[in-house]
Each structure stands twice: as structure tokens, then as C-alpha cells.
Amino acid sequence: MYHIEYAALNYYHSPISDECLCIGILFHNVTTGQRDFKYISNFQRFHVFDDEADVEFVKLYLKGIKEEVEVSIFNYSEKFDMQSYISVYANEFKFSPVKVLNVNEDENYVEDLTKIYLKYDFAKSQRLNSNEEKKLIRKVLESNNLEYTTQKISGPFCDEISFDYQVGNVCIKMFSFKGKNLKRVIGNARQWSFVADEMRPEKKVLFIYDSDLEDKTNLEIIINILSKNAVVLNLDAGMDYILRQCS
Predict the structure, then answer these.
(1) More confident position, 77 or 228
(2) How far is CA 66 from each of CA 40, 99, 159, 217, rounded to the nearest angstrom?
(3) Pairing mode, if any, of strands 204-210 and 160-161?
(4) Quick one: DSSP state of residue 168?
(5) DSSP-derived secondary structure letter, 5
(6) How far apart are CA 135 and CA 137, in angstroms?
């Protein structure tokens, strides 16, 4: 069994903005000492996120992180403290809080988590499907000793509501907007916002989403609708929220 630490590197429009794009993920195998840093290759998507950014600078910046952290003849004997390393990043480039994961020795955790956090760098045929993604999320919950259930929840009218997970008092629904007509999703968002309102105050509702940023206008509408009665976050921020609320 390997004990893994990992953190996502996010790029923000500005130091005071909450809007961000995941552009890399840092792994530290505490058991073996191996370190890996994977970062985006789809810089067209990055340009869509911030068309004023210096893409060539960002490429060099990410390459520099990879050369600095991955084990080489120059640093193989140095002890690596991920928390100390990521704490120096601020402003537009910030690492998320460190998460822990226990995996079997034959599991390719680097590839699997990279396919979740940097999924749009991969062809559709190479990406994890929704069940594989949820399996990895369950593994994160279990590695942090968080009990969860996937059973349906009884609603206020003796009906059954299908959230993806319930962790403690937090009910979680995951949305993937990749390749979808977001105008058609708006109605579904209204229904889930109504459900979230019905669950209060007994339950907290968290909506976790991903998006390819191709339709920012309708995505913003959907997020605003969902946010009326619930917390709405991307995957990494959503996992941080769960760990804070339920640990």
C-alpha cells in the first residue's frame, strides 16, 4: 500500500478572483519518495480562460515546476515537504490544500488522477468515465476516514432523492457539462436548486461541476441558479469543502 499526497495547481484571473482553471497536479508518494508533476498540454483551453495571459511564459513556468520537484540526480537525497513547497505559491498561481490517498502498489494513481483534474487534455476515449471518477472520489473519502453513503435520501414529501453521495450532513450531486447544450441544462439546474431548498436546514447541499468553458454565459447562469440554495464548486474545491466540513 502506498501513501500519496497530491495538490492541484490552479490559475486565477487575478489575485482577488475566485474563478480558476486547474493547470497542473503535483504528486508525492510518501512511501517511496517519488514525485510527479503533470500539467496541461491543451493551451487553447487555457487561452479561452484568459486570452490576455502570456501562454509562452506559463509553459515555461510549468516546465520549471516539473524540473524542480521531480526526482533527479540533483535532488534525490533531499527530503520533500509538500506543504512547505506549495505554501510559497500565491497570486495567479496557487496550489489547493494537500489531499491524501492510499492506493495499492499496482494502481496508476498518477494517470488516474491526472485524467480527472486535467481531463480535457485527453481524447474522450482516454478519459475516465463517470463511474471511474466516482470510484476515485470514494477512495479519497475512504483515505481520509470519511463515512459516506450512496443510498437515496428521503425527501420532505416521503419521496426519494438521488444524490451521488452523502457525507455526514452534506449531500453531493455531481454535474458534467462537457459537450452539452447548456441552454437545455438550465431547466435541470432549476429542479436541483428547488431540491436543495427543500433539504434545508436539515442537510447541506453541495453541487460539484466540471466544464469545458465553451459556453461561459450559460454556465454562469446555471451556477447562479444552483448557488441560490446550495454551495457550487469545481471538483478540487468541492473535495476541499467536504474534507473541511466532514473531517
Answers:
(1) 228
(2) 12, 19, 51, 34
(3) unpaired
(4) T
(5) E
(6) 5
